Amino acid sequence: MQPEDNKERLGFENYWRRDVSDIRDQVLSIWKDHGGPTGNDATARLNQIVWVVKNSGGSVVGLSTAYKVYIKQLRNHLFATRLLLVPQYRIPGLTSKLFVETRDFLESIHSGDEQEQAIGVITLVENPRMKEYRNEAVWPASGMVYIGNSQEGHHIRVYYFKDARIAP
Predict the structure, then answer these.
(1) From CA 15, how far away is CA 24, in angstroms rounded?
(2) How far apart are CA 48 and CA 66, in angstroms?
(3) Above 80 in pLDDT, residue 114?
(4) SS3 of 115, please?
(5) Which of 51, 67, 118, 168 is deepest in the core (most CB within 10 A)?
(6) Mean pLDDT for all residues in the chain
(7) Rounded to whole angstroms, how far apart are CA atoms 90 and 44?
(8) What is the rounded distance in angstroms from the CA atom of residue 24 to the CA atom of residue 111?
C-alpha cells in the first residue's frame, strides 16, 4: 500500500539508547540504498537513532538520529540531528512531524545531562528542493531558524530549547 493513499497508518517508535538489533538490518539497508553512512560509520550511527517510523507492516520507512556536538561559533553543545525517509514516504508533513518528535524528545532529556548540556538542535539541510522551496527564515512547523550556510552551501538551521542559556 502506498502512503499517499492515506489508508496506511505510520507508527513512531523511540530507540534512543535502546538495543536496535530488531531493526539493524533494515536501517543499514535503507542507509545503503539512500545515501546514508556505510561500514563503521553506519554501525556507529546505529547508536544515535532517536525515532524510527514504521509502516503498517512493521517495516522501517524512516528514522532520525542525533549526537551531541560542540559548535565553536555558537560556543555551546547542541544535538546534531539527521532525518531520512525512504522516497515513497516523503509525503507532506511527515518530515516536519519526524523532526518535531525528535526535537521534543531531545528537549525533554537535555536537562538531565549536567555536563556538556545541549542548548538545542542543529541540522544541515542538504536536500536541494528543500533549500529552494522551504526557504523561510523560520520554519513554522518546527521552529528551526536559518543561521547561515556550510562551506558546501547547505543551509544550517538551529532550534534552541525553551530554557536554553548561552555560555558567557
Answers:
(1) 11
(2) 5
(3) no
(4) coil
(5) 118
(6) 89
(7) 25
(8) 29
Q: Are 96 and 83 in contact (CB under 8 A)?
A: no
Q: Which residue ranges make up each domain of the chain?
A: 3-160
Q: What whole-number distance in Å separates Cα of residue 89 and Cα of residue 20?
A: 22
Write the single-letter amino acid at 104.
Answer: D
CA distance 87 to 61: 9
pTM reported for the whole predicted model: 0.88
Q: Give domain 3-160's CATH architecture.
A: 3-Layer(aba) Sandwich (3.40)
Cell of 132: 529552494
Q: Whole-angstrom Cα distance, residue 6 to residue 134?
A: 24
Half-sphere exposure of 55 (CA within 13 A, CB side): 19
Closest CA to 7 of 55, 67, 63: 55
DSSP state string for 5-65: GS-SPPEEEE-TTS--TTTHHHHHHHHHHTT---HHHHHHHGGGEEEEEE-TTS-EEEEEE
Cell of 31: 542507509
